[in-house]
Amino acid sequence: MIARRKAAVRDPPGWGPGATLAGMSDDLLFVPAVGQVSMLRSGEISARELLAAHWARIDLIDPQVNAIITRAPEIAAELARAADDRHARGAVAGPLDGLPVAHKDLVDTAGIRTTSGSPIDSDRVPATNALIVDRLQAAGAVTVGKTNTPEFGAGSQTFNRVFGATRNPYDLSKTVGGSSGGAAAALASGMLPIADGSDMGGSLRNPAAFCNIVGFRVSPGRVPSYPKEAAWSFLSVEGPMARTVGDVALMLQTMAGPDPRSPISLQDPPTLFAEPLDVDLAGLRVAWSPNLGGLPIAPDVAAALRGVPAVFEELGWQVTEATPDLSDAAEIFQVLRAWQYEVGLGSVYDAHYDDLKDTIRWNVEKARNLTVADHAAASAKQAALFHRVREFFRTFDVLACPTVQVAPFDVDVEWIREIDGVAMATYIDWMRSCCDVTVMGCPAISVPGGFTATGLPIGLQLVGKPRDDLGLLRVAHAFEAATEFWKRRPAAITE
């Protein structure tokens, strides 16, 4: 139970946007979410005080970064006040009670503008929440607003014609990646303790790698999605983002669990993720793949991750250089992605062709040029790939590889055309280190893995056995504790 506060909590002066909280260090805002929750439960800080501190940080930092593009101060105030009222009664709504959160601008939020980064939906205000938002709010999370994303989530570079580009807090001239880029930047710069995101070809993992945070592509169905046009598809998942692995596990205590509206939702209860992360992993069998079977990797990325195998060995793990046979992964992903774009955006393409960016039009047109034979071939190849991966994980417990093939690049560059002398044919090819993993159907997490010589973050991607999300979190937690890269704050933002 939560300790009762001795007196009713008063609103801090000016506790909406524009607030300052005298005497409270910004260090509070970089305390992991599990620590902020502990402070809330003990009565050391109120939800309203924590909200005010985050508003002050947003006001200071976001003009430089452009991460939280729509604010909801009235909704946040109501939710924080309700949390404090519960705490005063010794009650708690759930694991996140009183903790600020912002939602990706692709998910519906009742009463809060949801644009999907598109001029087509620039004035859209949904009447209801998406399932993921309902679950976070039911657990007591305090919604402060929406985070930036590329147009309809297309591409791992967060910019759009509604709100502009989000900048990397480690170097404001660089991109944050995408498509959950606004969330990653807000977390990295202390504007949020937790955030939600989504991932088709790397949209949780890529921005996490570029911003020195944690992004978890959970097993398909682990976090049920609703509404979702392609309800049976495993390709796109929703999931948590935070600064530490423990914070991601905390979020899954709310986000995970079955829902009848999602036909692929897994039946494990969310309490699974309350299990300890700090367990004995001696003898863990790690497959280290420095280039995921021959993908081009930029030299500065390779250099940043060069010490990873030594960390594994110091942890007492068995390290072997190996890669699963991911033949056909790129083809499978392109076909399935095109189909999902047709399902989700085909009607938008027909009605608003001139209002869509070219990469979205390309995806839909690719779908319409595919034949039934193309789909059949991709399906057969996907099944064969799954069985090769399944056999691979009979020998190994986890696969480790780079999350990204390049370091954060210039914010004005839409997508990478060449890596280490190898030309990229499409805007997807430069992120195959994530896309190829997507079609494995396994949980995959990006954790802070190191820094380039110029101080840019690089993520380490860890891939677990099918549906072994908790086991993967434990591996990631052990690496995080051994390296502590997550503690390195961005220096580029002016505080």
Report on this structure.
Residues 1-15 and 19-23 have low confidence and may be disordered. The protein has helices at 33-42, 47-65, 73-88, 131-138, 181-188, 205-211, 245-255, 299-304, 308-314, 329-351, 358-369, 372-395, 432-438, 469-483; strands spanning 68-71, 100-104, 142-147, 159-160, 164-165, 167-168, 171-175, 194-199, 214-217, 237-242, 285-288, 318-321, 398-402, 418-419, 422-423, 444-451, 457-464. The chain has an eleven-stranded mixed sheet with strand order 1-3-2-8-10-9-16-17-13-11-12, sandwiched between helices. Strands 4-5 form a two-stranded antiparallel ribbon. A two-stranded antiparallel sheet has the order 6-7. A hairpin with a 2-residue loop joins strand 6 (167-168) and strand 7. The protein is α+β, with helices and mostly antiparallel strands. The chain has 14 helices and 17 strands.
Please outline what is shown here.
The protein is α+β, with helices and mostly antiparallel strands. The chain has helices spanning 33-42, 47-65, 73-88, 131-138, 181-188, 205-211, 245-255, 299-304, 308-314, 329-351, 358-369, 372-395, 432-438, 469-483, and strands at 68-71, 100-104, 142-147, 159-160, 164-165, 167-168, 171-175, 194-199, 214-217, 237-242, 285-288, 318-321, 398-402, 418-419, 422-423, 444-451, 457-464.
